[in-house]
């Protein structure tokens, strides 16, 4: 399998850079997409599927293609890989199995569901080595043998500026693995319990919060402990960010599952069209003071319990000359 890089035009030299907003992403385009029955037990965001598998797959293929093209048009470099297999139903969400970090560091993660462990791809890692300056790769996947899991930037929402790793406890976020990651990559862990409106634990942190350069979206009401809720809100605002509080309904609509990227004309916030529609005029006004919103139609992908943030593995590495 080979990557087809969709290259954007260079960003103007006057554009302000942010370590929080990657300029490039990895995406996986599935040819046989279907929501993963093996992950439905603890992912309340997944939806029952109607219609044929062939129809689902073709819709998902078109949605991923359209997202990749829209990001490239916005000035983001997209490294698009094909998944032609049938054994990796969640491969469209690559941010769970690897992450990249300034200084040339790459991390590979232990996955909770055995069906997801096959998503790790050597060709993606090789592309990173060839196109970017990679100094080392830290592989945590062996922790799966001890039933210790940490599903990448789904389990953690990373503040690359303040060096904080926000993490909601779940089957997919083990505190031992989190501490190990934070020690290796110089982050401070901020851990909390989070639940949806029905009281069910939220499976991934990145569905309830997004941290940008000057703004953060977060479902504060999902954090059960009032003191911890206030501490998280204060931590975000003390860093100079405008905090946009999301309702339970907006979290269900994936408004927290967004990612700030560095585009041609400045920072953009990539999120689903469903998420964008759920925002109030006041919330949009706060966001648009810092970023340009880029709504993307991914209704089929969202049936699998993830949205735009889950689809994009940000590249925080320096390109080779």
Q: How big a fraction of the residues is strand?
A: 15-25%
The largest sheet has its strands arranged as 1-3-2-16
User: If you compute it from the alpha carbons, what radius of gyration comes out, rounded to the nearest whole angstrom?
Assistant: 18 Å
CATH topology: L-arginine/glycine Amidinotransferase, Chain A
Global outline: globular
What's the number of domains? 1
Quaternary structure of the protein: single chain
Element pattern in H and E: EEHEEEHEHEEHEEEHEHEEHHEHHE
The CATH class designation is: Alpha Beta
CATH level-four homologous superfamily name: L-arginine/glycine Amidinotransferase, Chain A
Count of individual helical segments: 10
Distance between the termini: 25 Å
CATH architecture field: 5-stranded Propeller
Nearest-integer average pLDDT = 91
Low-confidence stretches: 6-15
Question: Which structural class should the secondary elements be placed in?
Answer: alpha/beta
Number of separate strands: 16
- Tell me about the largest β-sheet: 4 strands, mixed
Helix content: 25-40%
Structure characterization notes:
It is a single chain. The strands form five sheets. Strands 1-3-2-16 form a four-stranded mixed sheet, with helices on both faces. A three-stranded mixed sheet has the order 4-5-6, with no helix packed on it. The chain has a single domain (3-315), classed as 5-stranded Propeller (L-arginine/glycine Amidinotransferase, Chain A), CATH 3.75.10. The longest helix is centred in the first third of the chain and has 21 residues, at 53-73. With 321 residues, the chain is α/β, with parallel strands linked by helices. The protein is built from ten helices and 16 strands. The model is unreliable at 6-15 (pLDDT under 50).
């Amino acid at each position: 399998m080979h990557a087809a890089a969709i290259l954007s035009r260079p960003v103007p030299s006057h554009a302000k850079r942010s370590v929080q907003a990657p300029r490039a992403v990895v995406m996986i385009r599935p040819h046989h997409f279907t929501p993963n029955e093996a992950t439905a037990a603890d992912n309340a965001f997944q939806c029952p599927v109607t219609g044929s598998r062939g129809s689902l797959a073709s819709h998902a293929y078109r949605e991923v293609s359209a997202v990749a093209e829209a990001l490239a048009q916005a000035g983001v470099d997209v490294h698009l890989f094909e998944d032609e297999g049938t054994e990796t139903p969640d491969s469209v969400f690559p941010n769970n199995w690897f992450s990249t970090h300034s200084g040339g560091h790459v991390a590979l993660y232990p996955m909770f569901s055995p069906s997801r462990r096959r998503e790790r791809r050597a060709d993606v890692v090789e592309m990173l080595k060839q196109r970017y300056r990679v100094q080392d790769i830290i592989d945590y996947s062996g922790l799966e043998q001890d039933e210790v899991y940490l599903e990448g930037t789904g389990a953690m929402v990373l503040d690359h500026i303040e060096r904080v790793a926000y993490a909601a406890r779940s089957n997919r976020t083990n505190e031992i693995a989190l501490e190990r990651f934070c020690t290796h990559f110089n982050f401070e862990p901020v851990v909390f319990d989070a639940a949806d409106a029905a009281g069910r634990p939220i499976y991934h942190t990145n569905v309830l919060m997004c941290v940008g350069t000057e703004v953060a979206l977060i479902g504060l009401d999902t954090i059960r402990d009032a003191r911890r809720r206030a501490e998280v809100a204060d931590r975000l605002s003390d860093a100079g960010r405008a905090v946009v509080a999301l309702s339970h309904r907006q979290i269900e609509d994936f408004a927290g599952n967004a990612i700030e990227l560095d585009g041609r004309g400045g920072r953009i916030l990539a999120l689903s069209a469903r998420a964008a529609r759920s925002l109030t005029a006041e919330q949009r006004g706060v966001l648009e003071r810092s970023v340009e919103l880029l709504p993307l139609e991914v209704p089929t992908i969202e049936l699998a319990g993830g949205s735009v943030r889950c689809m994009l593995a940000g590249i925080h590495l320096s390109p080779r000359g």
